[in-house]
């Protein structure tokens, strides 16, 4: 078998199969391989008319089918399965060849793999791919890390198969060295968790406080999707809420068990943020909300807990409250994105990745799950001020939150009074207020730490590190 394929895909579950079809549809000859050959044969038989495929039954056939430098995409489960595939194929490759991991790998695993393969002269690219099955087929947002040399070889192909923003820009770019691509994909997913939780809280308020039906809320979301909240997640929320279960005739959302699952990337976002010392409270509360939903034992045991007497709004009050919820949702989304971009900044500094936040925002404008109209403005904000310490440093976003904050506070106060849990709304507002505060109670916290652990403190009026001798005289010494 001669090397005729420009790229190869091994691992032909739905994502891998659709990615291979995407390459073929865009004019590339694609070598395809799977551990079980039945999937390889099925892909070629069912979709062979979409483009040029080369079916390979063994790793040796697969590698032999690839043009040099070889470009090999791995689409298997993260963790040990990915390591196993790398160990299987790496001995068959030559210096300058490229292995691309398109799964949701932990970025530290990607850094390890990149370092190991670099020592053998093989490029390793950890590429975050967002957009689900549809995106893999029709154009995802792609976040590749790895060396600049690997992107020179691979980048034009990724740019061709990636989603395109409204201005025609491909939704992919070289993110940075080693694990940068998978790190950015991790944070993308953390923002996704927050976005979905915020939308869920808005839904719950519109239903439990305003008294709207799921179908009515779907119409509200459709209206929101024509304005500044225009996004993929708002769009599909309307579709989910308007769907009626065929078996029962009930709203679909009422027959779905209220236990949200997660695959781990949201948790990673929070865990790494803690390691980096970055506050991502809105994202964290979204992760914890999923965790709470899954603890059926705790929820069942707590049915006896008392709450306030709930009062639905009058019909004439509901529209104004819905407008306030829209303000709260928009303000909270801005904060959630702010937290995510802060984490990317911290990761870039920690690992010396030099990530361009404007380019990250730009490639999230199409293909990915969090694609939204206001990412155009985020892109422009970072292009104008690449070193912004926070998205809230941008005047236009700060002004919008200032205009929304009264409604934002009213919505949260109403939720508390009515006993409707809104952890992500509340956490994002608390974050905003923490940034606004002239003084935080951390001064007291540091005093307590000095008292029980002699951890020292800094003063506001002079330089140095100090400790108070917490005896009768409470004298102070400078360390």
What does it look like?
Helix content is 54%, strand content 8%. The protein is of the alpha/beta class. The strands form 2 sheets. It has a 7-stranded mixed beta sheet with strand order 3-2-1-4-5-6-7, sandwiched between helices. The chain has a two-stranded antiparallel sheet with strand order 8-9. Strand 4, helix 4 and strand 5 (98-101) form a beta-alpha-beta unit. Helix 8 (180-208) packs across helix 12 (265-276) and helix 9 (214-224) packs antiparallel against helix 10.
Low-pLDDT runs of 5+ residues are: none
Shape: globular
Question: How is the largest sheet built, in terms of strand order?
Answer: 3-2-1-4-5-6-7
Oligomeric status: single chain
Q: Helical proportion?
A: 40-55%
Overall radius of gyration: 25 Å
Calculate the terminal CA-CA distance, rounded to whole Å.
Answer: 73 Å
SSE ordering: EHEHEHEHEHEHEHHHHHHHHHHHHHHEE
The total count of helices amounts to 20
Main pleated sheet: 7 strands, mixed
Mean pLDDT: 95
Q: How many beta-strand segments?
A: 9
Secondary-structure content class: alpha/beta
Strand coverage percent: 5-15%
């Amino acid at each position: 078998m001669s090397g005729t394929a420009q790229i190869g895909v091994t691992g032909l579950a739905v994502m891998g199969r659709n990615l291979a079809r995407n390459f073929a549809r865009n004019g590339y000859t694609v070598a395809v391989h799977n551990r079980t050959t039945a999937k390889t044969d099925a892909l070629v038989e069912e979709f062979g008319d979409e483009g040029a495929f080369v079916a390979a039954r063994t790793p040796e056939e697969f590698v032999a089918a690839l043009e040099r430098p070889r470009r090999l995409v791995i689409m298997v489960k993260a963790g040990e399965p990915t390591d196993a595939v790398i160990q299987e194929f790496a001995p068959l490759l030559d210096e300058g060849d490229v292995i691309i991991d398109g799964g949701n790998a932990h970025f530290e695993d990607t850094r390890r793999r990149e370092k190991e393969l670099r020592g053998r002269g093989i490029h390793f690219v950890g590429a975050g791919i967002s957009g689900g099955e549809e995106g893999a087929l029709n154009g995802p947002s792609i976040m590749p890390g790895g060396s600049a040399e690997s992107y020179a070889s691979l980048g034009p192909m990724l740019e061709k198969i990636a989603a395109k923003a409204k201005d025609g820009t491909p939704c992919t770019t070289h993110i940075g060295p080693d694990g940068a691509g998978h790190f950015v994909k991790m944070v993308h997913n953390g923002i996704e968790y927050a976005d979905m939780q915020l939308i869920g809280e808005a839904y719950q308020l519109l239903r439990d406080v305003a008294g709207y039906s799921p179908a009515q809320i779907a119409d509200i979301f459709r209206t929101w999707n024509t304005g500044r909240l225009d996004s993929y997640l708002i769009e599909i929320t309307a579709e989910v809420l308007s769907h009626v279960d065929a078996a029962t005739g009930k709203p679909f959302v009422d027959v779905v068990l209220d236990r949200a699952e997660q695959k781990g990337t949201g948790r990673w976002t929070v865990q790494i943020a803690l390691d980096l010392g970055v506050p991502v409270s809105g994202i964290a509360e979204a992760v914890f909300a999923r965790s709470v939903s899954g603890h059926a034992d705790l929820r069942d045991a707590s049915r006896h807990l008392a709450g306030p007497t709930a009062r639905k709004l009058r019909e004439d009050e509901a529209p104004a409250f819905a407008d306030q919820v829209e303000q709260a949702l928009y303000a909270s989304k801005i904060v959630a994105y702010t937290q995510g971009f802060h984490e990317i900044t911290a990761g870039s500094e920690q690992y010396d990745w030099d990530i361009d936040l404007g380019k990250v925002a730009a490639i999230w404008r199409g293909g990915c799950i969090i694609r939204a109209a206001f990412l155009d403005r985020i892109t422009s904000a970072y292009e104008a001020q690449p070193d912004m310490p926070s998205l809230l440093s941008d005047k236009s976003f700060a002004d919008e939150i200032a205009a929304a904050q009264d409604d934002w506070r009213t919505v949260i106060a109403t939720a508390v009074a009515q006993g409707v849990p809104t952890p992500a709304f509340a956490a994002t507002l608390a974050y905003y207020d923490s940034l606004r505060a002239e003084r935080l109670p951390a001064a007291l916290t540091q005093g307590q730490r000095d008292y029980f652990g002699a951890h020292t403190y800094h003063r506001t009026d002079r330089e140095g590190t100090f400790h108070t001798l917490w005896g009768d005289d409470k004298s102070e010494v400078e360390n």
